[in-house]
Amino acid sequence: MRLQVTATARDGAGVARSEDGRVVFIEGALPGETVVAELLREEKRWARAGVVEIITASPDRVPVPCTHRLAGCGGCDLLHLDLLRQPEMKASIVAEQLDRAGVAAPAIGSRALDGDSGRTTVRTAVLNSRAGFREGGSHDVILPDSCLAVDPTLEELLVDGRYGGAEEVTIRVGARTGERLVLIDGDPFEVEVPDDVLVVSRTELSEGRRAWIHEEAAGRRWRISARSFFQNRPAGVDALVGEVTDIAAELGADGPLIDAYAGIGIFAGTVGLDRQVTAIERGGDSIADARVNLAEADVKIVKAAVESWKATRSAIVIADPAREGLRKPGVSALVASQPDLFVLVSCDPASFARDAGLLAGSGFGLERVTVVDMFPGTSHVETIGAFIQV
Fold first, then answer.
1. With helix as H, strand as E and coil as C, how does the chain read?
2. Structure confidence at residue 107 (pLDDT)
């Protein structure tokens, strides 16, 4: 069917309306374009489609530079959009989600990455001993001979590494330290990688082995275990910490800081310097890293779920939850600490908007919103919101 694209959905698809009134989400289409689309899935009120022909192209459309994406690779789903226009699109996605949630918001800013060399962690499938990416909407695997999205030291292991009979492999590198690690679900003795690469299996970790690398970001060095969460690139950590530091300096008050969902201690070990900090994290590997990374800081590390944590008074809360967000239990637990400033870091616009609504219902107004382009070339959106008591 022929459709006029008017907006962008939260997953980066174009939004149009068919003659029968249904909303149609069109993968690979941009606002302002007229396209011929083929329906891929139909529901009563909406449908999903793919582009067959572009009749009128957006001035922001660019040729896709990756042959693997053209062949169906499910990664980097915004390569058809000019890189300089992507932050604006992502800001519009966040704005639309906040509007749907009924949350009043200021103009949304953006923060670019400085000195980015690509992703430093990928989780891949293994086919015929080689690492590869899933096709979009499929379990089929594409084996890349290059990858524009990852750091060169990771690309070598992605393309040239051999992983035996494993089904999955996670590759993690320290772009600024040169350290590299692969985590597999198979036999580590079947892995063929350069001698500098630390190889560990999930079975070995479950039996008590410890394995980690180091990375440098936000002006210091971090230990990162094989199963610990770390942002997908050090330049992204630089940007996140820079933005939250600016927010704390502009809107924050003196006093204790809560680092919720603290991971390996990124915010506690940077924004929390010269403050009394409580870092809350329940992941055992991340806790172990945080104890090393924050050994010289004034930080109390609490191993617990945020939702069950007993609140203590704070001046600032920084929360960086997983994709599902804080939800009511997380918001209730953290708001109970009565902060003057609440900073929410989110990797999902819908959960960010939902949590913003919950915070608004708890007496906090959204004072500042910034989109950090942590995932260039993809529809993933990283948002930082600053909320103050009203």
1. CEEECCEECCCCCEEEECCCCCEEEEECCCCCCEEEEEEEEECCCEEEEEEEEEEECCCCECCCCCHHHHCCECCCCCCCECHHHHHHHHHHHHHHHHHHCCCCCCCEEEECCCCCCCECEEEEEEECCEEEEEECCCCCEECCCCCCCECHHHHHHHHHCEECCCCEEEEEECCCCCCEEEEECCCHHHEECCCCEEEEEHHHHHCCCCCEEEEEECCEEEEEECCCCCCCCHHHHHHHHHHHHHHHHHHCCCCCEEEECCCCCCCCCCCCCCCCEEEEECCHHHHHHHHHHCCCCCEEEEECCHHHCCCCCCCEEEECCCCCCCHHHHHHHHHCCCCCEEEEEECCHHHHHHHHHHHHHCCEEEEEEEEECCCCCCCCCEEEEEEEEC
2. 96
Strand order in the sheet with 7-8: 2-4, 34-42, 46-56, 23-27, 14-17, 7-8
Taking the C-alpha atoms of residue 159 and residue 297, their distance in angstroms, rounded to an integer, is: 40
Nearest CA to 348 among 385, 377, 318? 385
**What is the Cα–Cα distance from 18 to 274, expressed in whole angstroms?**
57
State both tokens at 230. 């770390």
Q: What digits encode the pLDDT tens for the residues 119-171?
A: 999 999 999 999 999 998 889 999 999 999 999 999 999 999 999 999 999 99
Non-local CB neighbours of 208 within 8 Å, separated by 6+ positions: none
Residues facing 199 on adjacent strands: 182
φ, ψ of residue 281 to 5 degrees: the values are -155, 145
Query: pLDDT at position 169, please?
Result: 98
Distance of alpha carbon 51 from alpha carbon 28, whole angstroms: 6
Please state the φ and ψ torsions of residue 308, each to the nearest 5 degrees.
-105, 5
Contact between 50 and 37 (Cβ < 8 Å): yes
34-42/46-56 β-pairing: antiparallel
The CA distance from 273 to 275, in Å, is 5
Domains identified in the chain and CATH numbers: 2-61 (2.40.50.140), 84-115+233-389 (3.40.50.150), 121-225 (2.40.50.1070)
